[in-house]
Amino acid sequence: LLDFMKDNTEKFLHKTPMHITLADGGAETEIVMAWTNSRAEEWHVFTNGLENVEGGTSLTGIKTALTNFFKKKLKGEGSPDVLRKGLFYAVSCKVPNPSFANQTKTKVNNGELRGLCQRATTQMLEEFEYRHGDEFQKILELLTKELKAEQAAERARKQVLEAVKDVE
Questions:
Q1: pTM for the predicted model, two decimal places
Q2: Is the pLDDT of residue 78 over 80?
Q3: Neighbours of 87 (CB within 10 A)
Q4: Distance (Å, rounded) from C-alpha 16 to C-alpha 63?
Q5: In the prediction, which pLDDT does 79 show?
Q6: Which of 105, 104, 103 is nearest to 95 (CA)?
Q7: DSSP state, residue 53
């Protein structure tokens, strides 16, 4: 997955990509993550080698962990979408009995993958903060700027809407 991430991103904002492998029972997950100079969130989900383009429970686990982790660091501020701006992440899970939402297998449904990926993501972020504190601070600074920009945009949007009401 590290090679996959390097091949599919232009430039990381921090020099060390995040990476973890975690197993629980018969299930195993590998997750890679890095903030990039892109403004878009990009994710990839694989289950037993098959890409799930609609995501599923493993993606939900990662997003939940990201939101919870950074809301604590940023004192409850920020929408989950803003916290993932510029983030590239990929997850590959191996499960003995995969369950999919449809015949085309575009979305994985295994419930145990949500908890496994949530624990793995939290552990990966905590270890990254501990081992690469200076790089972690760059990520926090980026997210703080994104949140301030989003708040400024919301204020401007409200002013424009109020001005339109005054004209009518």
A1: 0.90
A2: no
A3: 21
A4: 21
A5: 83
A6: 105
A7: T
Burial of 29 (0-12, 13-18, 19+ CB in 10 A): buried
Reference 31, options 1, 69, 10; nearest CA is: 1
**C-alpha dist (Å) from residue 160 to 147, 148, 153, 163, 165:** 20, 18, 11, 5, 9
pLDDT value at position 115? 96
Helices of type H across the chain: 2-8, 57-73, 80-83, 111-131, 133-167
Predicted confidence (pLDDT) per residue in 107-158, tens digit: 999 999 999 999 999 999 999 999 999 999 999 998 998 888 888 998 999 9
Enter the tokens of residue 116: 């496994």
- CA dist 95 → 39, 117, 123 (Å): 33, 12, 20
Question: What residues contact 23, with CB distance under 8 A and at least 6 apart?
Answer: 29
- CA distances, 50 to each of 27, 78, 97, 112 (Å): 15, 33, 13, 18
Burial of 91 (0-12, 13-18, 19+ CB in 10 A): buried
Q: Two tokens at 4?
A: 């996959």
Using one digit for the tens of pLDDT, what is the confidence trace for 16-75?
999 999 999 899 999 999 999 888 999 999 999 999 999 999 999 999 999 999 999 988
Neighbours of 154 (CB within 10 A): 10
